[in-house]
Amino acid sequence: MSSADGLPPLRDVVETYDLAAKKSLGQNFLFDLNLTGRIARACGPLEGVTIVEVGPGPGGLTRALLSEGAKQVIAVERDERCLPALAEIESAYPGRLKVVHGDALATDWRALVADVQGPVRICANLPYNVGTALLVGWLESDPWPPWYERMVLMFQREVAERIVATPEQRVDYGRLGVLSGWRTKARILFDVPPSAFSPPPKVTSSIVELTPRAELLPCHGKILSAVTASAFNQRRKMLRQSLKGLAINGKTLDALALLHGAEIVETKRAEEVDVAGFVRLAQIADEMSR
């Protein structure tokens, strides 16, 4: 029996093309049509909108995005086994699905959407093994505002909590929370239970919305990322110790001078410094490295 879009049910598609999810690719296929529709609608009204999707697999979310009215979906898929299934969707929605066979971590995103007219949003059930790396790359990208106007992404719940964390949630607060808080307004929209997937993961997942901030405290994203990575790498130590050995542009910085320049007490720990404090550290680190 076909589904509402005239295409076979996803479970049949997976069986037809022998698409057993690969752990090495971080794959967990989402079959629940109510959930795929809910995720697509979380992206807001889709008329005139191009969606960039990473890791579509057999195309459950892809179909929902097109069904909800997306002008176009550009889907980046590494697993060549999924391409025939995606080609069926391409035929069902002529001119509205573009499938790119490639590695998302090596994709030039600005080039990918260079010819797109109208707004671009990212919506994806990200492969667990590359989700954090992809998000950091999108958050570090320059110039800003970025090439996308919103991201609606699925992560493991523990990663989602780190993305939205502030110093008030010290256990979860870290580099992801600083980068996300600096450049976006991030919030968890809803959870997705393991039973919604095939195979079911051992953890709950969460849908996170990240909306880029129009105005930012000025600093270089990659320097901010390096400073926070160093600070949180030894999060139980004082900053005067955890920032020792921090190198920017090939130059090792004096931790005490860096902290004094940013007007941050040297005995503080990383989890006690807010986003604005880390931005000041990045600004001083940039100056000291020149």
Features:
290 residues; alpha/beta; Helicase, Ruva Protein, domain 3; 2 domains; seven-stranded mixed beta sheet
Nutshell version of this structure?
This protein is of the alpha/beta class and 290 residues long. 36% of the residues lie in helices and 19% in strands.
What does this structure look like?
By secondary structure, the chain is of the alpha/beta class. The chain has twelve helices and eleven strands.
> Count the helices. How many?
12
The structural class is: alpha/beta
Approximate helicity band: 25-40%
What is the H-and-E element order?
Answer: HEHEHEHEHEHEHHEEEHHEEHH
Q: CATH topology of the largest domain, what is it called? A: Rossmann fold
Query: What is the strand content?
Result: 15-25%
Please describe the biggest sheet, giving its number of strands, its sense, and whether it closes into a barrel.
7 strands, mixed
Q: What would the principal axes of the Cα set say about the shape? A: elongated
| Rg over alpha carbons | 21 Å
Proper CATH architecture of the largest domain: 3-Layer(aba) Sandwich
Low-confidence spans: none
Distance between the termini: 65 Å
- CATH superfamily heading of the largest domain: Vaccinia Virus protein VP39
Strand order of the largest sheet: 4-3-2-5-6-9-7
Determine and state the CATH class of the largest domain: Alpha Beta
Q: Topology, please?
A:
Layout lengths: L9 H7 L12 E2 L2 H10 L7 E5 L5 H8 L4 E6 L5 H10 L4 E5 L7 H4 L7 E6 L5 H10 L9 E7 H8 L10 H9 E9 L4 E2 L6 E8 L8 H13 L5 H4 L4 E2 L2 E2 L2 H7 L13 H14 L2
Parallel strand pairs: 2-3, 2-5, 3-4, 5-6
Antiparallel strand pairs: 1-8, 6-9, 7-9, 10-11
Helix pairs in contact: 2-3, 6-8, 8-12, 9-12
